Amino acid sequence: MKNNFKIIQLLLSMILFLFASFALFLLYREINLNNQKATMSTTELENETSRRNEVKLLNDSIEVIKEDKSLLETHFAQSSDVVPFLDTIEALGPMVGVKAQTTSVDILKDNTGLVVKISASGDFKNIYKFLTLLENSPYELEITSMDLQKEASTIVPVDPTAPQDSKPVIALPQESKWQAVFGIKLLSFVQ
Known about the structure:
191 residues; 4-stranded antiparallel beta sheet; two-stranded parallel ribbon
């Protein structure tokens, strides 16, 4: 019986060993499957993180480009919206004390440019400053013509309340007014 007991112990030990080995094998296989899943998940996470970073970088680039785009668009006037260009040109006049207004706007026959006539009035120094501002405007312009004339000056008496026939008229020095008409061709014109 003692031998049987040892055989039973040996059989139980073998069964327990086989069961433990089988359990260990299943556990090892499950760990390997989980490890492969974790590796795939990590790869997917890295890919998604990389994609999100690229999207963020692209969005940041778009924001930077928007500023450049709006700056670039200020250098070009489109045929559908010439008003901002004309407003910009007319706004240059009051900056230097000149009254400027657009008198005509024409598109060239080959649609490559826009021709604008601007009338400006003021003293000579301010008209010259206006011309300088036109040349340095954000738009690419070509001054095609310029007609500059001095307006007729009027004599102003020293005492405007005194009758004109009682005292001789003495003229005070007065800045002369000038009238200029500029022909401007807008080269940065987009059809």
